[in-house]
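Q: I'm writing up a methods section and want to include an example of the input and output format. Could you take the sequence below and give the corresponding predicted structure tokens, formatted cleanly so I can copy it straight into the document?
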Amino acid sequence: MPDFTELQTHYHYWDNFVRLWRLGSYACAPYLPEPWWGMTPDSGEELHSVVLNLNPGPGGRLQSRCCVSCALGGPDSSAPYSGAMADGTLRDHLADTERWHHRRRYVPLMKALGVAEKDIAPDTRHHLSIELMPFHDAEANRIYCRDNRDGVLRHALRFAARASRLISPPPSAPGDAASLRCMVIARCAVDRIIDAAGEDAIIGRTTVSADKGKIRVETFRLKEAGFDDVLFVSLSGAHNSLPAHKSLKAILKTINNPNY
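A: Here is the clean output for your methods example:
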């Protein structure tokens, strides 16, 4: 079992971030920040995939302070975001969010690796989605990026990179399956990442291909020393879905080519 200790800094950061929101900070953000979703270090589960998304998308009543407070045990509850994820409280309360990350992120990647559908976990216990920006609304994210550019780099990009090093192959994946270890699938355009983290955050930006004009595939690495082993694969276009099965399988095969 991989040692997830080095990720604790990021989980603690976001636990405190959400705690401050629950106490009334970030007044311009009416809905629960969802900076990440899925696997937690305390779950005892392996990690199979890491995806970087742009942001959590629109919020709703269930993400309001009132509903979140009730779901987490009342206004005086100190239940952390990561704890509520680990014990299933958040997965149950925001079941549509759980289904979205499972069906739109984890399942397509597992199928692209050749894992049989019957062997794919029914939830996101083996998957980690990390959001480039944590809020559900554009104005709150604009302010967050303006004031926390280093936070985007430190607790989104580095978080994703460190987590990707701990990826294990799914147990039933074929022996010749592509590897996602040290790979972050970024479901957003590289330009958006640069806008949020700064031009100096990345190096080696390379265009791999465009899927018949619908999906643009680019790769890059973090400029910071010590992260050159992690490859970010940016997939942009075609709304907010991953490429179709055949295309996604081909993309992963190309990236895994030793000559790439």
